[in-house]
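Revision sheet: structure tokens.
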Amino acid sequence: MRSLSNMNLATESTVYSLFRATALWRGSDIAIRHKDKTWNYGELLETVDRLATILRDLGLKQGDRLAILSENRPEYTMLQLACARIGAIVACLNWRLADEELKHCIDTVTPKAFCVSLRFKAKLAEIVHDNRPTISVEACLSIAAKSQKDNGPCCEDPEMGLLLLNTSGTTGWPKAALISHRAEIARMTVLRMDLGIERGDAFLAWAPMFHMGGTEHTLSSLMMGSSVIITDGLDLDAMVEAIKNFQLGWLILMPATIEPLLQRLKETNSRVHGVRVVGSMPDMIPAALIAETTVIFNAPYANTFGATETGLPPATGHLIPVGEVPHDLDKKPSSLCEFRIVDEQEKDVAVGEVGEMILRGPTLFSGYWNADEVNAKDFRGGWFHMGDLFQRKPAGRLEFAGRSKYMIKSGGENIYPAEIERVLLADERVDDAVVVRKLDSRWGEIPVAFVVAKDQSLEVIDVENLCRAHLAGYKRPKEVYFLNFDDMPRSDSGKIIRESLEKRLT
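Predicted:
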């Protein structure tokens, strides 16, 4: 913990201090909606302060970890704000993980205490066999009602950790990214600057709260003075009700969720009340579906490229206009972010060349928990190395080229899967597509395409002709396979797990 002078204290805020300031002057405004219940800001602040007392009684102090294993509930957010008050860190556990993976996540961050919902109580009991304090999520509100408001010291250091979010485990074990108060405040600022989100816009928190899409924008909304509508995951009926009745800011939709939601809106003949920005991850979505989504919601599509470690930066500075079928998905830099595109010698690449994205700025996380060697490598030279490849293009545009650790080396040429996937996804007959590498005795590696067809008449020859028209010969997939949408292996964020598809080829 840093030693802060009075001058420092006067210039620095935390997530809790900004939430409290908002609550004090917007006390009667609705802060949280969940099913048929609401909490205004005054009620939420009082509950949070009472929960802080409970956490101190459990022995939690500044820097200690509280692990939460729960579905989306208001109590989840209240506990996060209570931890923000006392300086504790919330380890947001991913209930989708297998027991072995979840045990790894718990052992990595060594929680001082647990808060678990009834739904996952048995799962936690299978993994944790010691006597660390554990409370029920469902009991939090009744216990808080009997507690006194916390009168202990508040965390005043914005560099203190607030959240531990596990990164996608597509390679190796998940890593726990430590996100500070400073980073969360900066991420809220970027949300307003780049997406134009306003205080009157509600946030629909359907994405799991162990994911940045659920937790991060909930906290941003409560610092801003907006309202948050919390649903238990992809509850289509609850989401449709929110879309019909409230002005929403950023309606986050993952790739696999768009079509089911659009279908439910059509089935119920529901009218969209108002959405400022819709969607995410357009690189993984057919261009025609992007256009359809913007028309239905009458809102631009968020051309995102961020990460758990970085927030919306480095490249979420572009919105795809309503009705536009994008012919490219070039990114634009985010606010509050310095970045460089560098080669293997850390030299800036020229326009037209591909290199790794490295960046720095206030939205950055504070490293991976208990991973000094990884942190030293990823933060070398005072820049965070994302491991993502971009082509630098004219007029400040950036084109995503793939992961630096996932590149196809074929006959001496480097092939980036995103180059091929962009061509496939731009065709209206294709619902989804991914390209992986396969060992080849002649070329070393070759690109192989897995395609989900929207038009069932689509054949291998059609895919080959499509690629022939748009790609250099060495980039064209040498094999094409068709899969059903549900057979595509995906991570928690909806990203297709290439390694699983590679194994099918061996």
